[in-house]
Amino acid sequence: MRVPLSWLREFVDVPAEATPEDILAALVSVGFEEEDVHRFELQGPIVVGRVLEFVEEPQSNGKTIRWCQVDVGEDAPRGIVCGAGNFFAGDLVVVTLPGSVLPGPFPIAARKTYGHVSDGMIASAKELGLGNEHSGILRLAELGIDAEPGTDAIALLGLDDVAVEINVTPDRGYALSMRGVAREYAHATGANFRDPGAGHADAADRTPSGFSIVVDDRLPIRGRVGASEFVVRIVRDVDPSRPTPPWMTARLALGGIRSLGVLIDITNYVMLELGQPIHGYDLDRLTGGITVRRAEAGEKLETLDGQVRTLDPEDLLITDESGPIGLAGVMGGGTTEMSDATRNVLIEAATFDTVSIARTARRHKLPSEASRRFERGVDPLVPFVAAERVAELMVELAGGTLDTDLGASLGTTYEREAIALPDGFVAGLIGVDYTAEEVSAALRLVGCDVDDSASPWRAVPPSWRPDLTDKWTLAEEVARIEGYDRIPSVLPVPPSGRGFTAAQQGRRRVSNALAAAGYVETPSFPFTTEELNTLHGSATGESLPSVKLANPLDGQAPFLRRSLIPGLLAAAHRNVSRGLVDLALFETGTVFLPEPGVVYGTDTIPPLAQRPDEATLAELNAAIPRQRRFVAVLLAGMRVTKQPGQPAVPADLADAVDAVRTIAAGAGVRADVLQGARHALHPGRTGSVRVDDVEVGYVGELLPSVAQAADLPGRVLVAELDLDRLLELSGRAVVAESLSGFPAATQDVSLVVTDGIPAADVRAALVEGAGPLLEDARLVDDYRGPGVPEHSKSLTFALRFRAPDRTLTAAEATDAKLAGVAVAAERLGARIRD
C-alpha cells in the first residue's frame, strides 16, 4: 500500500517535520513491513508561465512549430519552441526552465532547434508524470488554477508530495486504505485520528427505493451469500471531459494508479481513501435493474480489459436484463463502462463474500485492486459512505447532479459476536505482565467494544477487523499495540524424555549416511504425469491408479507421484544442462499409492481452530491414498574423475548396489540383492532388494531409451527403496555393538552351484549353517570358465569367525565353515570347488 503523506495528514495529525522514514518507523512498530519511498522524479526550476504571444512556423518536414514568448516572472520573457497546438495567447502553462529534470530522467537545457534557441520547455501532463495521456500542453485554466507567472509549479500541482509504501499482510486488509493506515499511525504515535468513514450508522436508516436490486445466490460458498450489502447512487448530467484536479492525479500517481479520466479517477480515489472498491456504470447503457447471481454454465462476459471470459457456475456476477455486466468484486464489463460519452452514472458499492471473490480472481487469472481488497475483507458498514463520497466528488468535480429520488440500499443487519477473554489470558499467552488497564486500553484503541465489568471480559471487534475472531487474535493485538519490544527473548526448554521418534531417527540416519557417502539431496515437487507414473511406478509397465489433483500447480503434471525417480531425473537433467554431468543424487519423500477402484476425496471441511472428532478424522484419512516414504538415488557420469595417475572411472551398477547397502546400514537392516526385472530398467542389470525375504525396492541401470527420453547422456543408475518398510523391518533403534577383544579367524570357501542360483541364497545357507560363530560372510568372486562345469559358477565367500568369550581355534572355524557348506549342499546342491 502506497501512502501519500499529504493525504495521510488529512486524517491524522502528522508533525510537519516528520520525514518519510519517521512515518515508516511508526508503521513498522505496529507490525507493518517497510517497502519503499516514492517521489515524483523531477527537479526544479519548474514554474508557472503565461504565453504572451507566439508565431506559427511551418517546417520542411510538414510539422508546424510555435515560437512562443512566455512570461515566467522574470524581467524579460523567454523564447521557447513548442510543437503543440492546443494552447492560446494568454494561457497559463507549466514551464520547465534550463536546469530542471523531468521523469526519465530528462534534463532540460537551452538548445538550438528549428532555427531558434529554446530557453526551456512548455510541459504536458505526461511529461510531468501526472498521467499517460500526451494530448497536449497542460493548460492550468482547465484545472481551475490561477497563479502569477514564476510561481513554483511543483508545489502548485502537488508534485512535491511523497508516498511511503508498506507491505500489508493478507489478514490486515483494512490497511489497504488511507483510512486504515491513518488509524494505525495513530495507534503507533498517539496522534489524533479523524475517521473519514464516520457516519456509517446512517446507512441503516436507508430503505430501498426507485431502483431494482436483487441478490439471487443459488450457490452460496460455505453457506454465505455472495453479496450481503449492495448500495447504488445515481449522478446525472456529469461532464466526463472535465480534467481531474492535479492534487487528485498526483495522489493517484503516488498511490500507483494512473489517471483514466475524472469519473474513473474519482472511484479509484475513494477506493484508496476508504478501502471500499467502487464501480461506476453508464446508467444509459443499463437495461432494467441489477441482479447479483451466480453464472450459468457456458455464459460469457467481456471484461474491461477487452477479454471475453467463459464463466464458471461459481462466479458471482452483476447482471441486468441483457445478461452479465461485471464479475462481482473483480472487474466490470465492457458493455456498461463509463466513457467520454457518459452523462449519467450509477455508482455501486457492495460487500461481497471474500472466498467467492478470491476464487473468481484466481480462476480467471484476473487480480485487481478491487479483488485484492474484497478477498481480504472490507468494512461492511462503509459501502453507503463510499457511495455518497463518490457521488459528492462527481457533483463537485464533474458537474453532475445527485439524484436524490433514485437510491437504493440492500443489506443485512451487521452484528458481531462478543469474544470471551479470560483474566490473565493475554499475559499468559504473550509472556508479558500486562495490567488490566493496558489490555483494556489496547483493545479499545483498535476499535473493540470491551465490557470489563465481569469475568471473563467480553470484547466485540470493530466491523473493519474481520481478522479478530477469538481470544488469541485479541491477545496478538494487545502485544502489537503495547509493543513487541516488551516481549522477552527466552529460549524454550524442551520437556524431558522427548526427542525424535525411532522412525524419525532412522530417516535422519539414512539421509546422513547418503550425504556422507557423497550424495547430494535434491527435494522435488511430488507432481508428475500419468505416463511417468506408469513407467517408474509400476514394475511391469501396467497402468496403475494415480491420484489426479483438482487444482494442480502445473497443468502438465497434475498427478501425485508413485515414484521418486521422475523427480531425480528432472533434477539430473537441470544439472546436466548446466554442465554438471557427474551426479550422485538422492531424495527421501512421500509417494502416493492409491488402491484400484477406490475414489478418494471428501466434501467434509472441519471447522478451524478445533480438533476434529474421531469420526471426522477417519473420514478425512479415508479420503487420501496410502502414502509411503521412499528413498531413491541416481548416479550418472564419473564416479572418479580423471586426475594425474588416475583415469576416470564411470559409475556402474556396483556403485548403485553400494548405495543400497549404505541405505540398509543406516536403517539398521542387511539387504540382499537378487536378480530382478523392472519395466524401465535394463534386463540383466536389474536387482530386487530384499530384507528377510521381503522385497523392499529395486536397483539397476535405466534403459538407454528411458535415459535418452530424460535428456541424460550415458549410463544412468538408479535405486529406490521403501524407507518406511526398511525401518519397520529393523524394528528397533540401531545401537552400536560392542567390539570384541578376541581375534577373528578368517577362511575362504569356494562353492560350485548351478548358474541360475542367486549368490544371496548361497550366502544365506552358509550363514544359517555356520551358526553364531560366523560374524560376516562376503561374496568376493564369481567365476565361470575353465575348471567349472558348463552352466555352473564358482562363488567364493570370505568368512570371518569370532567368539565373544575366547580365541577361536582353526579347527572350530573350519567346523563352522563345513557346517555352513553342508546346509548349502543339502539346500542348493553346492559343492566345494576342487
Salient structural properties:
single chain; 834 residues; alpha+beta; Phenylalanyl-tRNA Synthetase, Chain B, domain 1; OB fold (Dihydrolipoamide Acetyltransferase, E2P); Phenylalanyl-tRNA Synthetase, Chain B, domain 3; 6 domains; 7-stranded mixed sheet; 5-stranded antiparallel sheet; elongated
Explain the layout of strands and helices.
Blueprint: E1 2-4, H1 5-8, H2 20-28, E2 33-39, E3 46-58, E4 64-71, E5 78-82, E6 92-96, E7 101-102, E8 106-107, E9 111-113, E10 116-118, E11 121-122, H3 153-156, E12 162-167, H4 178-189, E13 213-216, E14 227-236, H5 246-254, H6 262-274, E15 278-282, E16 290-294, E17 300-302, E18 308-310, E19 316-320, E20 323-327, E21 331-332, E22 345-352, H7 354-363, H8 369-374, H9 383-398, E23 401-411, E24 419-421, H10 425-430, H11 436-445, E25 449-451, E26 457-460, H12 471-482, H13 502-516, E27 520-521, E28 527-528, H14 530-537, E29 559-560, H15 565-577, E30 583-593, H16 614-622, E31 626-636, E32 638-640, E33 649-650, H17 653-667, E34 672-675, E35 681-691, E36 694-702, H18 704-709, E37 716-722, H19 723-730, E38 745-754, H20 759-770, E39 774-783, E40 792-801, H21 810-828, E41 831-832
Parallel strand pairs: 13-16, 27-30
Antiparallel strand pairs: 1-12, 2-12, 3-4, 3-6, 4-5, 6-11, 7-8, 9-10, 14-22, 14-23, 15-22, 16-19, 17-18, 19-20, 20-21, 24-26, 25-26, 28-29, 30-31, 31-37, 32-33, 34-35, 35-36, 36-37, 38-40, 38-41, 39-40
Helix pairs in contact: 5-6, 6-9, 11-12, 13-17, 20-21
